[in-house]
């Protein structure tokens, strides 16, 4: 571990995330990287609960990663921060946050299952952020491994610029390693596509000098091919592909070499003003709240006072720790290009920017919770403790979006799926000693305006108050969310009041006519008026919801239901039954395909009709059916689908009652 200040500012580094679909072997690969680098002396195991990066009790018990885990190792004088991310779709938010702070990535694909739905989702996120990526085809020793088929899938479904740099020696139980096709004098590969000629052919699509030599039949040295690939790989334009069997340690050293050869080091200067982002928050028994920070520019030292640009507050650092699996170490400072846990920041939240925001990349958006569920305490006396526990868990995963309705004594959280609910139940028990009960989850619908219309409110009674607003409400494109603009001049409505309206619009649209969030719309403030004497600063906070709800009453709203993009694979004999099920669930699907003796169909399913289908599919196929899913957006529900949610608080459409309720709240 590098812990000397001078060294930490100058050492060669890599910040690498390791990503994959569930069960592709991320944690096992991480364990072998640590072992082969000499970072740990004995190999842990996911199955036995001894893996370094599975530090939570529930992870060790269930053999799955729930939270992203930061570890580190050194290889050939390069310090590598490695983040092992969960593979299960229920914990996609952890993947999302890790993506933001990586300079390079390893995307693992199973040689047996090939490209799966979450593989594609992560790939598109890596592409959108232009993160240089190594592709690692794992489990080459397993029955059913087919590297040629998987390479074809990668070229078809992910990228045509995947460039194999190692060719497999053997397959399934005869797999014994790989040969470097970019080494001088490397033998021709027995597997089609895994050879120097294939690498040259791919790279010639990017590189003109290489293309000229290729067309003219001029022999191209392997050294030149490697140099060309390094240049394009570090730009995120070509993607080196490796093969291995991590559980046996085969291909691990080659992977470490590829991290150094093909992934870029971090940019940024330790001498610049601070620019950093918080990507994870944890509570430690001894250190309290720890914020995991990636520093892009500048340096953070013990006892520094940091400005949180997101929250507009300053806080003092008490300690900076390097987290290595289950061990932590005080390192005194963290400089540009590095990752560490910062203690003492009590108000910080995930996604907060520390210092200047300019150098911090945008956050991807992958995870969308589709289910809401009510949580019950074992007794009324336990509700305060349960609220505090869930608030702590929400700090660690903001997508839980905890809502505590005090008057109704109701607790609600948003979740991705059934596995996450099981993990939450286990965490509340093991970490907080609380026995909580979750209701059956229900689907989160949304609303959108049925047509264009206008909302108007003149909030002038009972005095003193004065706020007049007129909104134009229009349907937006699917997936566009809320688009807001104001056409009102500053002399007509002061900037401070316009800012208050803009801040209150998203809040007001959290509950539409049917009780669901209103989305995919454009709201334009076309008129606004205040009074020199009678207007109170909060009058526009009261008026905005009334004006918007009056407008929605005029436009009407359509119900939107969440969709899942699914891929179902079953033995061919069950194909007919699967198609029948899909029709009953209102699915939209592509023509099925037969791959070997497997029946494969892809399509879109309403989340509401398919909540129990994974269990049903497994039972129907004797455990041989596989369904993978990802969020597929919202679309209008059929007319016969009715879903209304009970409104929280007073409806702004009942203006008299709403004003009285708000004024009572203001007076208290």
From TrEMBL:
Keyword annotations: Antibiotic resistance, GTP-binding, Nucleotide-binding, Protein biosynthesis
Pfam families noted in UniProt: EF-G_D2, EFG_C, EFG_III, EFG_IV, GTP_EFTU
Stretches assigned to the Tr-type G domain: 11-267
Superkingdom: Bacteria
Cross-referenced PANTHER family: RIBOSOME-RELEASING FACTOR 2, MITOCHONDRIAL (PTHR43261:SF1), TRANSLATION ELONGATION FACTOR G-RELATED (PTHR43261)
Function: Abolishes the inhibitory effect of tetracyclin on protein synthesis by a non-covalent modification of the ribosomes.
Protein name as annotated: TetM/TetW/TetO/TetS family tetracycline resistance ribosomal protection protein
Originating organism: Paenibacillus alba
């Amino acid at each position: 571990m590098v812990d000397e200040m001078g060294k930490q500012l100058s050492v060669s580094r890599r910040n690498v995330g390791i990503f994959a679909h569930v069960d592709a072997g991320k944690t096992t690969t991480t364990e072998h990287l640590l072992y082969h680098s000499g970072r740990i002396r004995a190999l842990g195991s996911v199955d036995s609960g001894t893996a370094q990066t599975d530090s939570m009790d529930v992870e060790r018990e269930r053999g799955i990663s729930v939270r992203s885990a930061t570890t580190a190792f050194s290889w050939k004088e390069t310090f590598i921060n490695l983040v092992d991310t969960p593979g299960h779709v229920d914990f996609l938010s952890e993947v999302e946050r890790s993506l933001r702070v990586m300079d390079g990535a390893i995307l693992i694909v199973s040689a047996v299952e090939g490209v799966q739905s979450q593989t594609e989702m992560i790939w598109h996120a890596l592409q959108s952020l232009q993160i240089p990526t190594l592709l690692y085809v794992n489990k080459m020793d397993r029955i059913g491994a087919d590297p040629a088929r998987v390479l074809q899938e990668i070229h078809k479904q992910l990228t045509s610029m995947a460039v194999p740099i190692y060719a497999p020696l053997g397959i399934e139980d005869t797999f014994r390693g790989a040969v470097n096709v970019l080494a001088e004098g490397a033998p021709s590969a027995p597997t089609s596509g895994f050879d120097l000629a294939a690498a040259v052919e791919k790279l010639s699509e990017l590189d003109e000098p290489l293309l000229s030599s290729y067309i003219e039949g001029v022999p191209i040295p392997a050294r030149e091919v490697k140099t060309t690939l390094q240049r394009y790989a570090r730009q995120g334009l070509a993607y080196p592909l490796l093969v291995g069997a991590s559980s046996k340690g085969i291909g691990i050293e080659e992977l470490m070499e590829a991290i150094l050869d093909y992934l870029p080091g971090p940019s940024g200067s330790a001498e610049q003003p601070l620019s950093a982002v918080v990507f994870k928050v944890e509570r430690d028994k001894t250190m309290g709240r720890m914020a995991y920070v990636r520093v892009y520019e500048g340096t953070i030292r013990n006892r520094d006072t940091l400005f949180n640009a997101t929250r507009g507050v300053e806080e003092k650092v008490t300690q900076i720790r390097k987290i290595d699996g289950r061990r932590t170490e005080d390192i005194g400072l963290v400089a540009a290009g590095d990752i560490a846990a910062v203690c003492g920041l009590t108000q910080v939240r995930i996604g907060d920017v520390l210092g200047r925001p300019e150098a911090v990349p945008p956050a991807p958006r992958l995870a969308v919770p589709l289910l809401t569920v009510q949580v019950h305490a074992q007794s009324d006396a336990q509700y305060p403790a349960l609220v505090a526990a869930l608030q702590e868990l929400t700090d660690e995963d903001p997508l839980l979006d905890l809502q505590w309705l005090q008057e109704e004594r109701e607790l609600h959280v948003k979740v991705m799926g059934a596995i996450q609910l099981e993990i939450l139940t286990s965490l509340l028990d093991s970490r907080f000693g609380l026995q909580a009960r979750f209701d059956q989850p229900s689907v989160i619908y949304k609303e959108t305006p049925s047509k264009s219309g206008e909302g108007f409110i003149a909030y002038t009674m009972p005095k003193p108050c004065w706020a007049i607003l007129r909104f134009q409400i229009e349907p937006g494109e699917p997936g566009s969310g809320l688009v807001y603009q104001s056409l009102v001049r500053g002399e007509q409505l002061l900037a401070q009041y316009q800012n208050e309206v803009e801040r209150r619009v998203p809040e007001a649209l959290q509950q539409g006519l049917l009780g669901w969030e209103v989305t995919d719309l454009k709201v334009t403030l076309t008129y606004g008026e205040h009074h020199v004497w009678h207007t109170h600063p909060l009058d526009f906070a009261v008026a905005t919801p009334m004006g918007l709800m009056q407008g929605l009453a005029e436009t009407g709203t359509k119900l939107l239901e969440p969709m899942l993009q699914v891929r179902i694979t079953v033995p061919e004999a069950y194909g007919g039954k699967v198609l029948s099920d899909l029709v009953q669930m209102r699915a939209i699907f592509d023509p099925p395909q037969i791959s070997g003796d497997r029946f494969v169909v892809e399509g879109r399913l309403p989340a509401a009709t398919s909540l129990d289908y994974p269990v049903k599919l497994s039972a129907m196929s004797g455990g041989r059916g596989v369904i993978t899913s990802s969020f597929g957006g919202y679309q209008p529900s059929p007319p016969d689908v009715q879903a209304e949610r009970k409104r929280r608080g007073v409806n702004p459409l009942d203006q008299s009652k709403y004003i009285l309720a708000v004024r009572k709240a203001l007076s208290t």
